[in-house]
Design a protein that fits this description.
Elements lengths: L2 H15 L3 H20 L5 H17 L10 H59 L3 H11 L5 H8 L3 H22 L1
Amino acid sequence: MTTDTRNIEQALVLKIIQSDQSAFEDLYNLYADKLYYFALRYLKTKEEAENIIQDVFVKIWETRDRLNSEYSISAYLFTIARNTIFNLHRKRLNETAYLEYLETYLDSLHSKLEQEIVYSDLNSHINKIVDKLPMQRKKVFELSRNGGLSHKEISQQLNISEKTIETHIRLAIKDIRKILSNDL
């Protein structure tokens, strides 16, 4: 940077600090194109590069009272542009990660809901089959599967042998499988 350019920058910054809009416009005209092409190298579209330039100069104007004429305004402009581009990329990564998480979560939720519906339908169908079993077989099966009783406990409760309990459960399962395989 030449001494003349440095002096021009310092003069512009001093005027901008005092809210001189024409000095701000001069600064814009001096650096907007350079910043635009800088941003365009890192972004996908011209619109994004233009938005970055807008953001940079809005930030300069909003923080004009904190500018220091001793420092290079061009370096400051490019630093703001670089950080804004990084923030944009970071935001995109976060959004992408969140969308992927959301998609996975919704898929698993959908899958879980689907499994619950299938289970409920299957359970309902099995209950209808069990209702059609002979009375004693139905009672033994329900005490075993729904009541959680052992063969010995069912035997004592119904006053029948454990061997008969085993036979009733085996035949109930056989009937349920046969009807389910025909229905499905």
